[in-house]
Prior knowledge:
5-stranded mixed beta sheet
Amino acid sequence: MRLSLSEQIARRQQGKAPSQLNDQRIPIYGDKQTATSETRPLTWRLAHHDAVLDLATYESLQGFVGLKQALDKPFKDVENMIKAANVRGRGGAGFNAGLKWSFMSPPDGLPRYLICNADEMEPGTFKDRLLMERLPFQLIEGMLITAHAIGATDGYIFIRGEYILAAERLVKAIDECIENNLLGTGILGTDFSFNLHVHTGAGRYICGEETALINSLEGRRANPRTKPPFPQISGAWGRPTVVNNVETLCNMPAILVHGVDWYESLADIKGKSKTPGTKLFGCSGLVKDPGLWELPFGYTAREIIEDFAGGMVDGKTLKAWLPGGASTDFLTAEHLDTVVDFDAIQKAGSRMGTGLIMVVDETQDMVPLLRNLEIFFQRESCGFCTPCRDGLPWGVKLLTAINEGTGQLGDVEKLEELTRDLWIGKTFCAHAPGAMEPLMSALKYFRPEFDQKIVSAVGEDVIEAAVSQQPVVK
Ligand SMILES: Cc1cc2nc3c(=O)[nH]c(=O)nc-3n(C[C@H](O)[C@H](O)[C@H](O)COP(=O)(O)O)c2cc1C
Ligand code: SF4
């Protein structure tokens, strides 16, 4: 049974959807006064309006200019343009969007799909929600440009079920686009036709994995599919499909308006990063002003945490930070001068992920913190492959015991073993390795905190005996 959107939303409202964050506390751009479509292409319209929710206002602010430019070009030219711009996917992996599109099977007159991944359940990440709630037409325009480039006939915005306001605003914007011939058949008098639908998820982190998302959209159990075949060859309903993140798609309109050279030149603003374009960076945790800021690549973590987020709250000292969501590796105060981009963060030993930093202060105990994170990953395992389904609960069991003072000698080594057993290539999808990244890095940088709890639990004499291999008589 397929529920209508209003039925889906009503269901979510009856449930325990987390309360929406107070919008006023999230400054979506850094410098309100100077933001233009050339300096802050994703958020400049918010310098003039809290949100752009009607078509007339969007059109008065360069709305659908990029689409018109795209429709004037052959679809291959648009694909090549985006490939040359090197728009790196903002869903986490950073893959060149145009290159991804180029793997689509050639058109054959049958349906082809574009899916917008708006699942956004990564802890600490809230960038896509803002783009959808405040600028729904920008996402629709980005999807239309992409659909034209890949020859998609139908599109779906697969949105996290708790994002009720975003879903409502998107549906309203889609309706207005249909009324004004911006969606549907023969868009703007051309032979390009595209239908767009909003589908709310039932609240699973794994639905963010693109093939699990496709299964869920089709009404199947949300477990990942084998790749290959990749979705571009066989995706939704076995047809060629592209899945792109919300923020990735929102990059398209400005590139069509200002061109590839402009997009590339944005990276040179600070001269520290080769990644083109801008990104919604963010910071949460015990900082003075948690929020989101659209910035060109090139800023260091220190600049984001201290200059934009106002630094740590009074009296707190930073101990560790996650660069882009819970499924990335911890870095420490020593890494604060690392530029937050795909390559530099990888070189420092982590992943940029979603680019929204979470900070940990020196009074926070890593063991309960990790236990909390691993409870999340355990709960969100789809259960399809054994190492993840059984390994993640084992990790939680060990962390719980260590935290509660009932840990045993060797438990930390078992955790280390687990990080190897659930690593890339050992499980069916990237969920389990993602769960291991914070654990592995916490053990690397903060091992004494784990060991200390074991020492307190078993007693120093047991440790000493184990070291000297003598039996302890108690
Ligand atoms: C467990 C898991 C969860 C994911 N969650 C999301 C998500 O919420 N949003 C997203 O865009 N990508 C998510 N991804 C990545 C997607 O599989 C996919 O790479 C992405 O949507 C591609 O879009 P992009 O190329 O525009 O980045 C997730 C991946 C995994 C393994
Ligand atoms: S790694 Fe986890 S989430 Fe991924 S398929 Fe296996 S059980 Fe499912």
